Amino acid sequence: MAFAAILTVGQLKHTEEHPASREFFIAGNYIMREAAKTGQLIKEFNPNRVKLPEERIKGNGTSVLTLTV
């Protein structure tokens, strides 16, 4: 069986604490909780050690990473 992995790097327009960004993080946390309930979640991706591209470090918004396998 073959697997494909896709790493997506995005930039929110606002900081993580901004009300406009809060909904994004609430939805993401909900999805992860639901995925964990299935018993099929292999591992939750933690982007804390990921080196971001230089253009993602600049700016006011929060960088967001997703990993899909």
Could you give a short description of this structure?
With 69 residues, the protein is of the alpha+beta class. It has helices at 19-37, 54-57, and strands spanning 6-11, 63-68. A two-stranded antiparallel ribbon has the order 1-2.
Question: Could you walk me through the main structural features you see in this protein, from its secondary elements to its overall organization?
Answer:
By secondary structure, the protein is α+β, with helices and mostly antiparallel strands. The chain is 33% helix and 17% strand. It is built from two helices and two strands; from the N terminus they run βααβ. It has helices at residues 19-37, 54-57; strands at 6-11, 63-68. The protein has a two-stranded antiparallel sheet with strand order 1-2. It is flat, with a radius of gyration of 14 Å. It starts with 5 loop residues before the first strand and ends with a strand. The relative contact order is 0.34.
